[in-house]
From TrEMBL, chain A:
<comment type="pathway">
    <text>Sulfur metabolism; hydrogen sulfide biosynthesis; hydrogen sulfide from sulfite (NADPH route): step 1/1.</text>
</comment>
<comment type="function">
    <text>Component of the sulfite reductase complex that catalyzes the 6-electron reduction of sulfite to sulfide. This is one of several activities required for the biosynthesis of L-cysteine from sulfate.</text>
</comment>
<keyword id="KW-0560">Oxidoreductase</keyword>
<dbReference type="InterPro" id="IPR045169">
    <property type="entry name" value="NO2/SO3_Rdtase_4Fe4S_prot"/>
</dbReference>
<dbReference type="InterPro" id="IPR036136">
    <property type="entry name" value="Nit/Sulf_reduc_fer-like_dom_sf"/>
</dbReference>
<dbReference type="GO" id="GO:0050661">
    <property type="term" value="F:NADP binding"/>
</dbReference>
<dbReference type="GO" id="GO:0050311">
    <property type="term" value="F:sulfite reductase (ferredoxin) activity"/>
</dbReference>
<protein>
    <recommendedName>
        <fullName>Sulfite reductase [NADPH] hemoprotein beta-component</fullName>
        <ecNumber>1.8.1.2</ecNumber>
    </recommendedName>
</protein>
<dbReference type="GO" id="GO:0046872">
    <property type="term" value="F:metal ion binding"/>
</dbReference>
Automatic annotation (TrEMBL), chain B:
<feature type="binding site">
    <location>
        <position position="419"/>
    </location>
    <ligand>
        <name>FAD</name>
    </ligand>
</feature>
<keyword id="KW-0285">Flavoprotein</keyword>
<feature type="binding site">
    <location>
        <begin position="155"/>
        <end position="164"/>
    </location>
    <ligand>
        <name>FMN</name>
    </ligand>
</feature>
<keyword id="KW-0028">Amino-acid biosynthesis</keyword>
<feature type="binding site">
    <location>
        <begin position="119"/>
        <end position="122"/>
    </location>
    <ligand>
        <name>FMN</name>
    </ligand>
</feature>
<dbReference type="GO" id="GO:0004783">
    <property type="term" value="F:sulfite reductase (NADPH) activity"/>
</dbReference>
<dbReference type="InterPro" id="IPR003097">
    <property type="entry name" value="CysJ-like_FAD-binding"/>
</dbReference>
<dbReference type="Pfam" id="PF00175">
    <property type="entry name" value="NAD_binding_1"/>
</dbReference>
<keyword id="KW-0198">Cysteine biosynthesis</keyword>
């Protein structure tokens, strides 16, 4: 192991989060006690830092914050609980459990995330233990759904290439299991397992992470070309499945992608992962483990906003990383194999797999599963789950795939889809079908502007322009986030909006349609009126002047609206 | 500087003497005299605390006290405030560092050196933890800050139109309130390090300079200590003070079944004083809907003058019924009088001997409108009718503030009573008046009702056990405020309960602050509707019986406030159980123990 393990690459002292982790005794902290405190629905900040590793963090209803403060009440503290499943695959029974938990303990809705996880919002402190227990009873977990560890491993969910997909999914699960934290804290705090006095030192308790875990979160995703729905270039570590006639040959390895940045700090930027070579399926666990350990040893532990893997690589150079990796592996990667991506969106509606099972991809606006007066989405899915014999797959675009429906079962599922009017999005504009927004207000503590609650109405307005221009069925990827941390992967969209203040967004253009290129800042700090005024002439011109098959993101570069961004290092230029 | 009767606590004769004497004094003589009076005051009978504080503050002591306040959204301002604090401490300053939201606004008057580090959030908005302080400073309640020296470091982002807006507003407002700028405000962009440290250096230089020359300034005299008209009128129950309402808000969060008003009332301009445990009397007005319906039911004219007392004073009927007479309570004497108002109205039978229970059932939850509708009283002239009515009595509420924490103010905690009975909405007279019809800026006739049977022990070291579910918690806010201001070291333990944690935790932020500061040692809460089994304060007491017993043995005083019928009884029983279980007493001995405590004034109750 490298000598500088736990040392910062620069001479600055560790960030306070590092101290919290170090003192926490493998993620225990004082959580057990502070969860019991009846005077506040909150937990102290130190424990909240640790809570993230357990798959949850504290939020409050920001709509009520000022009102409650005047009323001399603390903020309406509540917890977001993130439930992960590698590749987003769950059984119908697990779906029903999530539905039930959401109803009993959360705000009655389920949020599907851009990393194929479930999010429950609005869980109060005194229900946290029961929620996590029930999640675990459903054989799902929240451990490491957040925090400075490897997060949910993403994987293309659509098994139209059924055999390859099945194999790839198995590897996603193996990577996920391999990188799970080993601490017993989770079981002690939430599952009432006895506390065992553990005298082993850090390396034995957490052989991969050690006692202070990673400097920052770490994301892994696997794409199966031609679909890049997992946005493989946004991942810290991406694998691109290379397959031939239904056979998985291995994976191209891509490293150093990431979305987050900070407004006004050009030293932070989104970055796309770079392909460094090829590994066979049997080699990927080793590649993942060593990559994580390199980031553990070299990642910046002094400045959290400079701690993601992309900065470790950009600071030292990709050649350094390949060398370091191959040293640790003891073998060399093969040369990367050719691959081709078409799109980073989802394939809606019914698709038949090569094993003759059927898969239905449902359009879910911004991933929010709930019942509304005229659209009983949550109830409809519950009815499907009751009879479904296949599985459910959360897609990386916050949609839901009802997977592995046999030909015999298909009419029954189709009948429920019809009865509840569940939509494959065909009635919507192609823009809306390719839209994503993060959760943002009122629960997200980082949000500066609306996203999930606002994007649908903004799209209503943009659709009027599309109709005028005759672009309703033109697939354009549009994304919105309430802050620059990038949960909806906005830096890869053809059009994106990143919140700066309530009602104000930075507008970016020119991302690649298949998730292959970052976009570029076009206008700063604008509101809805300016957004529409800016978009109208560009869309109209695109309608008239585009070349055969030319995507919007490519057009805006050719037409000179923005410069092409080749690397995150040019993002702010 | 000339003293007047109206802006000082002196009589005309004293003012004349002082005005003759003061101009002849040298600076040294003035300082000597103020020190002499302050020392003299310590051995003599206590005077008003505010006056004492003013004198002490003007003593010849060089202040190196600096208050650093920050308003921070993302943590940058907080970080800079910490750095600044470190620098100041290195230079020997005593620094109080606080977020604006944790800072007690009533302490602002006493601050001499104030350094503000604040960011601007979104489109020119203050950060969340600066909102309340920002609002306070821009409200009418902001104090004059003539003695204040200040400087502002503003953080912002030039890509926003309203760059550093919040910092600019604080800077401007502090000056308007009379503050003097130590150094000019500095506005920082996203990359703030350099400008911030420059500002810190300037502030340090300026502070070091001024503390050295402060002695000369110390002689600025007592002036301004008593603002407004120091009228000598004695206000009382019979002569209530028309107090201005400063704040009237609902303490219960959205979704609560309850509505509890927090009322802040100004006592400025009157000489009313109170101690923790005292009550405030309010003369309310009857519900206008009820008044109107009664007048309509009887076919009276609202403007008709009616006599309101035996001296022949008159008021228009509508006004008399709203603010002078009680119309919501039926009593046997009232019904007996009403019988005589007209013949054959049927009331006679209800009042007949042997029908007492029926009468009790009838008067419960009924009012005058029910009476005139249920019995044939139509045709009785208004002036005759009102002659049998009782004068509207004032309502008494336990005061929920300490005068020491909020000089010139009194706070109340009032639950709005509203229910349905006999097919009609019924409103608590005073609570609905306050909750539904009284606005900030309105006046309210009030007086102080002293309550010698609910008083803090004179010795501030004695531990307190306070049990106050619901609005019963009101006086304990006053107790803790008092102990905070006194710097008392005695331990304190509060038991509170209500229906729901999330919406009904009255004054939650204040208890949390006191717990953090140690003013409140323990707090136990019981929220009855959050769990399948109803949990009340007495259950929490029993859970902690061992510790409670230790406190009792250590001489703690026990205070109970709130509902008499159920709560006070259950709490008493819980105390008996604690004494039996932990002290090995039998039930008789336990009861006797509590009786003895009551006699020694160690067990006091304000129950209703």
């Amino acid at each position: 192991m490298s000598e500088n393990h736990l040392l910062s690459p620069n001479s600055a002292p560790h960030s306070d989060v590092e101290d919290i982790k170090r003192r926490s005794d493998y993620l225990r902290g004082s959580l057990a006690e502070t969860l019991e405190d009846r005077i506040s629905g909150s937990i102290p900040e130190d424990d909240n830092r640790l809570m993230k590793f357990h798959g949850s963090y504290m939020q409050d209803d920001r709509d009520l914050r000022n009102e409650r403060s005047k009323q001399k009440l603390e903020p309406a503290y509540q917890f977001m609980v993130r439930v992960r499943a590698a590749g987003g695959v769950v059984t119908p029974e697990q779906w029903l459990m999530m539905d039930d938990i959401a109803q009993k303990f959360a705000n009655g809705t389920i949020r599907l995330t851009t990393r194929q996880s479930f999010q429950l919002h609005g869980v109060i402190k005194w229900n946290m233990k029961q929620v996590i227990q029930e999640v675990n009873e459903a054989l799902l977990s929240t451990l490491a759904a957040c925090g400075d560890v490897n997060r949910n491993v993403m994987c293309n969910p659509n098994p139209y290439e059924s055999e390859v997909h099945q194999e790839v999914y198995e590897w996603a699960k193996k990577i996920s299991n391999h990188l799970d934290p080993r601490t017993r804290a989770y079981h002690e705090i939430w599952l009432d397992e006895e506390k065992v006095v553990d005298s082993r030192d850090g390396v034995e308790q957490e052989p991969i992470y050690g006692p202070v875990y990673l400097p920052r979160k770490f994301k892994i995703g696997i794409a199966v070309p031609p679909a890049n729905d997992v946005d493989v270039f946004s991942q810290d570590l991406g694998f691109i499945a290379i397959h031939e006639e239904g056979r998985l040959l291995g994976f191209n390895v891509a490293v150093g992608g990431g979305m987050g940045m900070t407004h006004g700090d050009p030293k932070t930027y989104p970055q796309v992962a770079r392909v460094i070579g090829f590994a066979t399926p049997e080699q990927v666990l080793d590649v993942a483990e060593k990559t994580v350990m390199i980031q553990r040893d070299y990642g910046d532990r002094a400045v959290r906003k400079h701690a993601r893997f992309k900065y470790t690589i950009d600071d030292r150079g990709i050649e350094w990383f390949v060398h370091e990796l191959e040293q640790r592996l003891g073998w060399e990667l093969e040369q990367a194999r050719p691959y081709h991506f078409e799109h980073n969106g989802d394939r809606y509606g019914w698709v038949k797999g090569s094993d003759d099972n059927w898969h239905f991809t449902l359009f879910i606006q911004n991933g929010r599963v709930k019942d509304e007066d005229n659209y009983l989405l949550k109830s409809g899915l519950r009815e499907i789950a009751k009879v479904h014999t296949g599985d459910f797959r959360l897609t990386p675009n916050q949609n839901l795939l009802i997977g592995n429906v046999t030909s015999e079962k298909k009419p029954e599922i189709e009948q429920i889809i019809q009865a509840y009017g569940l939509t494959d999005g065909a009635a919507y504009s192609a823009l809306r079908r390719n839209s994503m927004a993060c959760v943002s207000l009122p629960t997200c503590g980082l949000a500066m502007a609306e996203a999930e609650r606002y994007l649908p109405t903004l799209l209503d307005e943009i659709e009027l322009i599309l109709d005028e221009a005759g672009l309703r069925d033109e697939e354009i990827v549009i994304r919105m986030t309430g802050c620059p941390n990038g949960c909806a992967r906005p830096a890869l969209a053809e059009i994106s909006f990143i919140g700066k203040a309530v009602g104000k967004y930075n507008m970016y253009l020119g991302g690649g349609f298949s998730g292959n290129r970052l976009n570029k800042l076009y206008r700063e700090n604008i509101g809805e009126k300016e957004i529409l005024n800016e978009l109208r002439p560009i869309l109209n011109r695109y309608a008239k002047e585009r070349e055969e098959g030319e995507h919007f993101g490519d057009f805006v570069i050719r037409a000179g609206y923005v410069k092409e961004v080749k690397s995150g290092l040019d993002f702010h230029e | 500087m000339v003293l007047k009767v109206t802006d000082s606590p002196f009589s005309q004769e004293q003012v004349e003497l002082l005005n003759r004497l003061l101009p002849t004094l040298s600076e040294v003589q003035k300082v000597w005299l103020s020190g002499y009076l302050a020392a003299l005051h310590k051995v003599e009978a206590p005077m008003a605390a505010g006056f004492q504080a003013t004198l002490a503050a003007n003593g010849p002591v060089i202040s190196k006290e600096v208050t650093v306040l920050f308003g921070s959204q993302s943590g940058n301002s907080q970080k800079l405030a910490k750095v600044l604090t470190g620098k100041l401490q290195e230079h020997g300053f005593h620094v109080t560092l606080s977020s604006m939201s944790d800072f007690k606004t009533n302490a602002l008057k006493k601050v001499e050196n104030l350094l503000v580090v604040v960011s601007t959030h979104g489109d020119g908005e203050p950060p969340d933890n600066a909102l309340s302080f920002h609002e306070f400073l821009h409200s009418k309640r902001a104090p004059q800050l003539e003695g204040l020296r200040f400087s502002v470091l503003a953080l912002g982002d030039t890509s926003y139109e309203l760059f550093c807006q919040t910092g600019k507003e604080f800077d401007k407002r502090l000056e308007e309130l009379g503050g003097k700028r130590l150094t000019p405000r500095v506005d920082c962009d996203v990359d703030y390090d350099e400008q911030a440290s420059e500002w810190m250096n300037q502030v340090l230089a300026s502070l070091s300079e001024t503390t050295a020359t402060q002695v000369a300034a110390a002689s600025a005299f007592v002036g301004g200590a008593v603002i407004g008209s120091g009228s000598l009128t004695e206000y009382s129950r019979s002569n209530p003070f028309q107090a201005v309402v400063l704040e009237n808000l609902n303490l219960n969060g959205r979704g609560s079944d309850k509505e509890t008003r927090h009322l802040e009332i100004s006592l400025e301009g009157c000489n009313l004083e109170y101690e923790p445990g005292d009550c405030l009397g309010i003369y309310p007005k009857n519900h206008p809907g009820l008044v109107r319906e009664l007048i309509d039911a009887m076919g009276w004219k609202p403007e008709e003058p009616v006599p309101i007392n035996k001296n022949g004073e008159e008021l228009p009927l509508e006004e008399a019924l709203s603010s002078h007479f009680e119309i919501t309570l039926l009593t046997k004497p009232l019904l007996e009088q009403a019988v005589k108002l007209s013949s054959g109205n049927g009331l006679q039978e209800l009042l007949a001997e042997g029908r007492e229970q029926e009468l009790r059932d009838y008067v419960r939850n009924r009012d005058l409108l029910d009476l005139v509708e249920d019995y044939d009283l139509k045709g009785v002239p208004a002036k005759d009718f009102v002659s049998v009515l009782r004068k509207l009595p004032p309502r008494l509420y336990s005061i929920s503030s300490s005068l020491k924490s909020y000089p010139d103010e009194v706070h109340l905690t009032i639950r709005n009573v509203h229910y349905q009975a006999h097919g009609r909405d019924r409103y608590g007279v005073c609570s609905s008046y306050i909750a539904d019809r009284l606005e900030t800026g309105d006046t309210l006739p009030v007086f102080v009702q002293h309550n010698p049977n609910f008083k803090l022990p004179a010795n501030p070291d004695i531990p307190l056990i306070m049990i106050g579910p619901g609005t019963g918690v009101a006086p304990f806010r006053a107790f803790l405020g008092e102990r905070e201001e006194l710097g008392a070291t005695g331990k304190t333990w509060l038991f509170f309960g209500d229906q729901h944690f999330s919406t009904d935790f009255l004054y939650q932020l204040e208890w949390q602050r006191w717990l953090k500061q140690g003013v409140l040692t323990h707090m136990d809460v019981a929220f009855s509707r959050d769990t399948s089994e109803k949990v009340y304060v007495q259950h929490r007491m029993l859970e902690k019986s061992k510790e409670l017993y230790q406190w009792l043995q250590a001489g703690a005083h026990v205070y109970v406030c709130g509902d008499e019928k159920k709560m006070a009884h259950d709490v008493h029983a819980a105390l008996v159980t604690v004494l039996q279980k932990e002290g090995g007493l039998d039930s008789e001995e336990a009861v006797a123990y509590l009786k003895r405590m009551q006699q020694e004034k160690r067990y006091q109750r304000d129950v209703y």
